[in-house]
User: Fold this.
Amino acid sequence: MRDGNRIKAKGYKAQPSNHMTSANDYKQLLQRLRAGLPQTQAKSDWFEVPKAELKILGRKTSLENFGDICELFQRKPQQLYVYLTKKLGTAGNLEDHKLIFNSVVSQTQIDSALETYYQDYVKCPVCGRPDTTLVKKGRVTYIKCMACGAESPVKSELR
Assistant:
């Protein structure tokens, strides 16, 4: 229906137009909007850096779940082996999906080193997902994200 220059629709109640809304009205609208959104999980909920499972063997330490960690990070065991031995300042060797350090290493030291490795060499700096691969172009190593397609140079070089 037309009423002069206005169109009246069935069931539509005109609200008074007030372009100036108070901060309280805005906050209430924002709270209503947020309440209607679905709950999302924090990124840390769906991926956690695994804790090291250690066994002390005299003067040596065995990282029992080394193979599982490499599989979860989608990295070659040799890459993680080189990183951990350099980071912890001890020699070691790989035996049957285990990494054996030639000294006693604490749980805290290994967990901290694994977290640092994850942040620097696994987690995508753009989207934060762990679905990445390491790609070497010339002398520079990049983290290539399979989720968002980003390529970012790693902070420090793996040798």
About this structure: Confidence is low (pLDDT under 50) at residues 41-45.
